[in-house]
Design brief:
63% of the residues lie in helices and 0% in strands. With 313 residues, it is mostly helical. It is globular, with a radius of gyration of 24 Å.
Length: 313
């Protein structure tokens, strides 16, 4: 195994490093210890640099998909450090507001779909999954705001707001987990509170520093409305379907397959219905812009059709 020299000092001045080259702009002096950015000064390992060089040998840097070994490698990492190896099939990105709300609304049926053979685990996990679903929605909102703050030179604001949020998270954990009726479920609730504070602070400073006037209806209210419609559609359709199918569906599942039970089929159909309602809500609230549609395959053609019927913002 190669030995790495962690005592080697790498001079990063003049490389557009935020940590060093913006000290004067942000703090008024360059004679400071730059402890304000979570950026290590250790040299990148050779095997990572070699992998990047191999990729750069190809002249086109376009859109890529995840390699086949991406999730298995994460499972190996978790096992090496925590002694438990999750199934890579369980792993998914949940980067969006709609996905987070959907995960929260359908937490119980989704968990039953995944852990139907061990139903005793579900009641414990449902509140946690619900809370983290809403946290995911807040994180999806936080990421672009943080990026915009960094773009206008206020990289200090996300760091400070995250410190405040982390403090609230720690206090929230201590208080909520200590309440017997809440117990471990207090941890995700504290996470929600943390991200609410972080988003609020970052958004305030973004508007204050940039002097930009945001169209609240287009930027926040319309997407929020469509997300709520999606969540309500998922919740209501699952409730109706599980009742209807439960009365007529074979007890052991369709064709004797437990995976094709009434509950699981209700989840899958409810997700499809929710997606349909979300698309309809986007169209009728005119929450989609031409730039959004242009990124889709045959986007220009689709945009013209939507414009013709007045379904584009």
């Amino acid at each position: 195994m190669k030995t790495y020299d962690f005592d080697r000092i790498v001079d990063r001045h003049g490389t557009n490093a935020v940590k060093y080259d913006t000290l004067t702009d942000v703090f008024g002096s360059k004679e400071l210890l730059p402890l304000w950015v979570a950026d290590m000064d250790f040299a990148t390992p050779d095997f990572i640099l070699d992998a990047l060089r191999r990729r750069l040998d190809h002249p086109v840097l376009g859109y890529t998909q995840l390699p086949d070994d991406y999730w298995p490698q994460i499972a190996v990492w978790i096992e090496a450090r925590h002694g438990w190896r999750p199934d890579p099939a369980w792993m998914r990105f949940i980067p969006g507001i709609v996905k987070g709300i959907g995960m929260a609304v359908l937490a119980k049926p989704i968990l039953m779909l995944l852990y139907g053979s061990r139903p005793y685990l579900v009641p414990v996990a449902v509140p946690i999954m619900q809370a983290y679903g809403y946290s995911t929605a807040l994180m999806a909102l936080s990421a672009p705001i943080t990026n915009m703050l960094q773009a206008i030179g206020r990289t200090d604001v996300p760091v400070k707001s995250l410190l405040i949020g982390a403090a609230i998270k720690i206090v929230g954990n201590f208080v909520l987990v200590g309440i017997p009726s809440i117990n471990i479920q207090g941890a995700p609730y504290a996470s929600i509170l943390c991200y609410v504070v972080v988003v609020a602070i970052n958004l305030y400073f973004l508007l204050h520093v940039s002097k930009v006037r945001i169209n609240v209806i287009s930027v926040f209210l319309k997407p929020a409305f469509c997300s709520v419609v999606c969540g309500v559609a998922a919740f209501a359709s699952y409730g109706i379907l599980s009742t209807l199918l439960g009365s007529i569906w074979p007890a052991g599942g369709l064709f004797g397959k437990s995976m094709l039970s009434a509950g699981n089929m209700s989840v899958l159909i409810a997700v499809m219905i929710a997606v349909a309602f979300y698309v309809v809500a986007l169209l009728f609230s005119r929450a989609i812009s031409k730039d959004d549609v242009a990124m889709l395959p045959k986007g220009e053609k689709i945009a013209k059709i939507l414009e013709k019927y007045g379904l584009m913002g």
